Q: What sequence folds into this?
């Protein structure tokens, strides 16, 4: 049986380790790293692009495989502009989590632009419960922090292709794709314009709002949201707005958005006082709602064509 002094030393050692752990967590919480540096840590330059025709998905559609210098792969879907369109813009986009690279297929085939939608770097299931999300937090955190690099790789891949005018590349972020699309501007200087659709800032408020209806007891929603925000902080739009300085920007938000708190929407819009900020009388843009997507595509292309050459 261990002596009392040995037990006392063991208890003291455990107490010291626990105290050091608390201090380490406090330091991590109160001293977040530079967002740009954290995003660059998940970035590597484009190494190659592999293209394969995919007629089963629609006219002029291709599957792209983007490989960066670290050997990581990104899936993307490409649809070339109709051949009769002169000097088309190239749209590089990231849609919502449930849409991914298939956002290309939601854009009408007759849209007078090349479209490349990249997929999210999360390879697991996308219908996780709150408990499953909590258990998968490290992997999800890595995927979230890599998502801007995925968008930046898409821009580099598109600009490297012979049919693309590299001076006419626009980044488009929609819904949950807005934070990553904006943050991608810290990693690339390819885009000539930026379009953000149905987005918001204040990621902690967004997480807290989303979790309030999914977590029981509800008291856990706020601390879980705070932890989630700390992990995703480099993607906070309010921190990354400056990366778009001097660039033409179009913001479009649904006036009756049922998914985003109005305060978070207004914070995003306030971050870009010089942008063309528009409202549409509708609800949040969803993949299954074809007519609003078609109208949105037309509005974006008209705005792009109105920019000075």
A:
């Amino acid at each position: 049986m261990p002596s009392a002094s040995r037990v006392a030393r063991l208890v003291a050692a455990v107490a010291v380790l626990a105290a050091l752990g608390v201090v380490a967590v406090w330091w991590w919480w109160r001293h977040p790293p530079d967002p740009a540096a954290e995003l660059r840590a998940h970035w590597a330059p484009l190494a190659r692009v592999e293209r394969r025709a995919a007629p089963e998905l629609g006219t002029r559609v291709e599957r792209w495989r983007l490989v960066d210098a670290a050997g990581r792969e990104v899936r993307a879907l490409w649809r070339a502009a109709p051949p009769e369109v002169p000097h088309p813009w190239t749209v590089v986009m990231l849609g919502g989590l449930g849409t991914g690279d298939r956002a290309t297929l939601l854009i009408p085939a007759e849209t007078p632009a090349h479209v490349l939608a990249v997929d999210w770097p999360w390879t697991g299931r996308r219908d996780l419960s709150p408990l499953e999300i909590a258990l998968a937090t490290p992997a999800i955190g890595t995927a979230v922090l890599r998502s801007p690099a995925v968008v930046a790789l898409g821009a580099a891949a598109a600009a490297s292709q012979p049919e693309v005018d590299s001076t006419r590349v626009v980044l488009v972020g929609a819904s949950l794709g807005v934070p990553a699309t904006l943050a991608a501007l810290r990693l690339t200087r390819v885009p000539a314009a930026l379009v953000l659709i149905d987005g918001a800032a204040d990621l902690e408020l967004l997480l807290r709002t989303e979790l309030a209806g999914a977590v029981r007891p509800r008291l856990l929603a706020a601390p879980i949201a705070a932890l989630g925000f700390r992990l995703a902080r480099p993607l906070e739009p309010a921190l990354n707005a400056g990366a778009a300085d001097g660039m033409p920007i179009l913001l479009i938000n649904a006036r009756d958005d049922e998914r985003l708190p109005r305060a978070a929407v207004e914070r995003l819009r306030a971050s870009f006082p010089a942008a063309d900020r528009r409202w549409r009388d509708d609800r949040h843009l969803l993949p299954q709602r074809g007519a609003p997507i078609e109208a949105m595509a037309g509005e974006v292309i008209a705005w792009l064509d109105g920019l000075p050459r």
Summary: The mean pLDDT is 86. Residues 1-31 form one domain. DSSP finds eleven helices and nine strands in the chain.
